[in-house]
Amino acid sequence: MKHIRNKKTCILAAAVLTGAMIFTLTACGRQEKAGRNLITSEEEEKSVVNLFSPMEKIEPDAENVARTASELTVAMAEERLGVSVAYITYTAEDYQEKTYDEVLLERAQHNLDDIYLLNPDTLRALGEEGLLADMSGLSCVENLRDVVKTANTVDGKLIGIPQEVVAYGLFINQDMFDAYHLQLPETPEEFLECCRVFKENGIETPVGANRWWLETFVFAQAYGDLYNGGNTEAEIAALNSGESKYSDYMRPAFEFLQEMIDCGYIDAQKAYVSEAIEGEGEDFLTQKTPIVMAYWGAANSETAYGDPDFPMVVIGFPSSRGQMPVISMTGFGVGADAVNREDAMQVLDIMLSDEALQMYAETNQVISPSKNVEVDCIPALQPLNDRISENVYVLGANASMKVEQWGNTCVIVRDLLGGATVDECMEAFDKLQEESLQGK
Hints:
Number of strands: 13
Shape: globular
Strand content: 5-15%
Structural class: alpha/beta
Number of helices: 17
Distance between the termini: 11 Å
């Protein structure tokens, strides 16, 4: 597509928050910089495993709980294996002209590291190039949820495993719904009716939106049946072969977004330029708007929506199958020809064991990729959690699809916000599918 830079930026920012801010990506640079290196002078004889990841914080003095949780699992692996893990970190200062994804691709293609923290699009690209090792033989894989394996399998190889599953949902101000005697919406039609009532009662913008996350509405409506109709593999195979068209799945969801724009239920101009949470967060917290979209961890964080002055509830997005969570995840992968491949595999097998994932999930209060690990969630998240526990969800990123989903859909949604027609947006999906069939 013509939006190459926008697409990369969109994928980067979306995947960071999609990865529930495992580490916060900042933009770009040229020199390699080693971050925290766990090697001490007394450990120089130990095997060293290099891990490339974004390790920056949004603010230098902010506590990065997710990083701490991940480091606890690294320490567990170091102690048990007698190895050291060296963090090679991406920073804005050192990579001023390149995104994290661009730098990661270069490093992986030149076999510079052993373990990589991968966004969905880079995982798929490197998997198709055969540059990531198959991790299906690790003992921790036996405990993974099926959704994790589905989302991170390319050409029959499991090439990525995350430390958490990230769920997106609608954050609802329950007081504002109660004030107008509105039930929590299940379908697109019910959602639009709620927006109509709010608008007619003086709520200027019923839905707070930003330039990254409106695609969550699209995924819920486009792929609700694909992922929950019992025919997932066959439908994806038909899309990959060209027998089915992505645009046929996407059209109803884009028509839904267009109706929201036309009716003024979202502010398209503001959404087009707004960063996630920064753009709509204040209006939601001050009760000017009753609905926003965000990821699971935002409900636990006081810097996001974890401490509102009103009762909040998090539900799935409207779909023909009811409230539908949208799931994405960021995975660790190992270079197929990594210098320390075997040590790296063993490190990840411990970091991704049920014991380590239990510690990680309890620290971060997140959904675990292991079907054996459960953590109590706050009451606000219970409706979303219930649907996921029932195995009702759609994937926002799926490496087994030849057309990358999250980043491409984000860019095309932004085209809609910028004034493109639904037909033009569908043509963009058709072009992407055609390019994938031609091997571009």
